[in-house]
Amino acid sequence: MTLKEQIQALVNVIKQSFEAVPAPAPAPVPPPATPPASPVTMNKYMLADGTEIEVEELEVGKHVMVGGSPAPEGKHTLQDGTVISVDAAGLITEVVAATAPAVPTGMSKEEVEAIATQSFSKQSQAFAGKDELKELKDKLEASEKRNKQLFELVEKIAEASIQTPSAATPAAFNKQGFDASTIVSQIKTMK
Question: How far apart are CA 139 and CA 132, in angstroms?
């Protein structure tokens, strides 16, 4: 295999590596933030789905923020069961305090199992999104590692091609430590 063929094989492997990396999804554009007019201490709360929110106070007319932006309009349930209603501007319109769960009495084993299964199902759905996020982060880290290795190999090729060989023979060129077939095989093992 000639040097030109080896370099072309290397270029093809690099192209295939980049084609295998999925393009990141475009980030959603958040609505413009409407922070409170004066500096206010924000209290942190967790929603039932695990999302962290910041609230001035749990009172009607106070601001609710999610990641620095106004909370989306609708009803949001806190981890303690309190439900807050928020308007389009991120202001609380209603606060419904959590009620103590009723203690089941005289329930059959099947009814208790059905309630437990339903509760477990809701919790597992909340954690499913976190698993997907971790998987995407792991894939991104692996891609970044492969890219770093590829660029290191390309730098080796560039350095070897810049050096002046002592004799104009392929054998003399390879004595300088440059062997394109070895580099191509290293890239193929990165997949």
Answer: 11
